[in-house]
Design a protein that fits this description.
Layout (H helix, E strand, L loop, with lengths): L6 H17 L2 H8 L7 H9 L18 H14 L5 H15 L2 H12 L5 E4 L15 E5 L2 E12 L6 E7 L10 E7 L5 E7 L5 E12 L4 E2 L6 H36 L1 E2 L2 E2 L4 H30 L4 H27 L9 H14 L4 H18 L1
Parallel strand pairs: 1-4
Antiparallel strand pairs: 2-3, 3-7, 4-5, 5-8, 6-7, 9-10
Helix pairs in contact: 1-4, 4-7, 5-6, 5-7, 7-8, 7-9, 7-10, 8-9, 9-10, 9-11
Length: 383
């Protein structure tokens, strides 16, 4: 199989790399993380002008018509730069749901605004009790003469602070844990009855908790078919899980590169610490960990592109491996850098914190390892 990138993908990678090196250096990233919004909207408009926001969307919607490979190229480079701007929540989650199941009016109104950088969105799906189970939903929607009434709470909503539009998962029928009966609704973040509390996570990302107090929604707020949102959510989250795994790969590569460079300049007992055999062995282990994640990521990306039958199993394995190898790589990077490795002044600690948060996004290592084991068991049982 040919794993070479196309000419367009190489150009895309180079353009992002150049932007990170020239306009998104670590000091600039720290400035943005300390701002009230946690992002830079001028940077976001630059993303739009460079065409990065259009990559996953079809040409009919004004997009580039890219696929999983193009998205992974973007996310890996964003990982290297620790980019804070909301590509995952706005383009891949919010935009992905609209692109997959939005009606003609929703697509024509919202997708061009996302592509042009004029609309920031978010996907509100997590609840206090749900942890990583996408189908554990207590937020409810009831039908009324004018449309729907939304009542409930969502937590840790990525980009919730800056989002003007939300897509909210809510139960329209069935019990709390039922896979059937979950629907998706488009909600204005400033609508009457919507309360928002925002806060910053340890990796610099801004998230929000939303309380929906009998919010009135029109009939056109429904996305997709009533009660049939679970499959759509699972598919879009699966694609987003591969995307943040690519981001994690970019971070792992930078941690390895920066740690190797440091080991060549830091001296102890008159010699660079990189000459010590025990540290060489540890760095070889982290390079091998990186290559394992890279290999499985490529398999997952190809599986998404080909709509492979075992893609669910592959993605669970990938996310579990990202969690395991991420801990090993950032742990060694911090240890080899010494006490300064976790300080706020050095970027090593910031890369490590982002890897920790990626591990918890869409489910941690143990969660996905359990899902993978169950699928393998079911497969062998059927066989």
């Amino acid at each position: 199989m040919n794993f070479d990138f196309t000419e367009e993908q190489v150009m895309l990678r180079e353009s992002i790399t150049r932007f990170i090196q020239e306009d998104y250096k670590f000091d600039e990233r720290r400035r943005i993380s300390k701002s009230s919004s946690g992002i830079d909207k001028e940077v976001w408009k630059t993303f739009a002008q460079l065409g990065w926001l259009s990559i996953p969307f079809s040409e009919n919607s004004g997009g580039f018509g890219g696929g999983p490979v193009d998205v992974s190229v973007i996310m890996e480079e964003f990982g290297k730069g620790l980019v804070l701007e909301p590509y995952l929540p706005t383009v891949l989650l919010f935009g992905g749901l609209i692109n997959s199941a939005g009606n003609e009016d929703q697509c024509s109104n919202l997708l061009p605004k996302i592509i042009e950088g004029d609309l920031l969105g978010a996907f509100a799906y997590l609840e206090r009790q749900s942890r990583y189970e996408l189908t554990d939903v207590m937020t409810k929607v009831e039908s009324c003469s004018e449309g729907f009434i939304l009542d409930g709470e969502k937590v840790v909503v990525l980009n919730g602070l800056n989002a003007s539009k939300l897509i909210v998962s809510a139960r329209t029928s069935g019990d709390q844990f039922d896979r059937e009966g979950i629907s998706l609704f488009l909600v204005s973040a400033d609508a009457d009855g919507v309360d928002r509390v925002s806060y910053q996570m340890m990796d610099g990302q801004m998230v929000s908790n939303f309380r929906f107090n009998n919010v009135s929604l029109g009939t056109n707020s429904l996305i997709g078919s009533l009660g049939e949102g679970s499959e759509l959510i699972e598919r879009v989250v699966r694609e987003a899980t591969v995307a943040i795994s690519a981001e994690a790969l970019g971070i792992m590569g930078e941690l390895n590169r920066k740690t190797l460079e440091y080991s060549k300049t830091r001296k102890q007992f008159g010699s660079s610490i990189g000459s010590f055999q025990v540290l060489q062995h540890r760095m070889v282990d982290t390079f091998m960990a990186y290559e394992q994640v890279k290999s499985l990521l490529y398999r997952a990306v190809c599986g998404l592109a080909e709509d492979s039958d075992d893609i669910e199993c592959i993605v669970h394995a990938l996310k579990a491996l990202v969690g395991k190898m991420g801990k090993q790589i950032f742990g060694e990077a911090i240890q080899i850098h010494g006490g300064m490795g976790i300080t706020d002044e050095l970027d090593i600690g910031h890369y490590s914190k982002r890897l920790m948060m990626i591990n918890t996004t869409f489910g941690g290592e143990d969660h996905h390892q359990g899902k993978f084991n169950n699928l393998r068991y079911d497969h062998h049982s059927l066989a």
